[in-house]
Amino acid sequence: MARTALSRDQVLDTAAALVKEHGPAALTMRRLAAELGTAVTSIYWHVGNRESLLDALVERTVADLGTLRPHGADPAERIVSVARLLRRALRDRPHLVAMVHERGLTEQMFLPAQRALIHEAHAAGLRGARAAELVRAVQFQVVGHVLVERNRERSPAQSPAETELWAARSSAGTPDEDPALARALAAPVDTERLFTAAVGALVAGLLGAHTGPEPSTR
């Protein structure tokens, strides 16, 4: 049976998968060729040298984040949906996002999400500095949350863990404490739900306060 001809997209798909799983250091032309079952010369023909390949992966990552499509019944819901999609995109490809950052293209990567947020801010009646405040606040919330999540995942094991500390307080049942709160803090963190609640509260606050004084741009 004849082998299907290798395409540039196949090369980039396989290279992206290697980087996402093992990091940029694992991406060598020899390993990529082995994954694809082809010769190294074939890889060079499709994407050039390794630096050209990395540049192509960065371009693709920037383009991928331009495909975020908000959904929801009103601007607030759609803004939260943009934030959730952006968080998921950053979480799914940390090594590729780091490569984008190293090449000085971070702002370009975030531009499509910013445009989507601006559109929804205008739909909600925000203009000028207020719209800019909402866009930046949501973007900072997304990036900050992702960084905290990554830090928690990479931190050394804690002993006792947070869940164990609060479980002990819950079982103690002292009258000056809140047992239901202790039980909730003893449960594993649902980061997706926590993120959605935080962004929802942020957006509701910013949209609800748009009748007040204009924020300073100083």
From TrEMBL:
InterPro entries registered for this protein in UniProt: Homeodomain-like_sf, HTH-type_TetR-like_transc_reg, HTH_TetR, Tet_transcr_reg_TetR-rel_C_sf
Region annotation (Disordered) ranges: 151-178
Cross-referenced Gene3D superfamilies: Tetracycline Repressor, domain 2 (1.10.357.10)
One Pfam family linked to the record: TetR_N
Source organism of the structure: Streptomyces showdoensis
Name under which the protein is recorded: TetR family transcriptional regulator
DNA-binding region(s), chain positions: 28-47
Example GO molecular function: transcription cis-regulatory region binding
Keyword DNA-binding included in the entry's annotation: yes
Residue ranges of domain HTH tetR-type in the record: 5-65
Domain of life: Bacteria
Alphabetically ordered keywords of this record: DNA-binding, Transcription, Transcription regulation
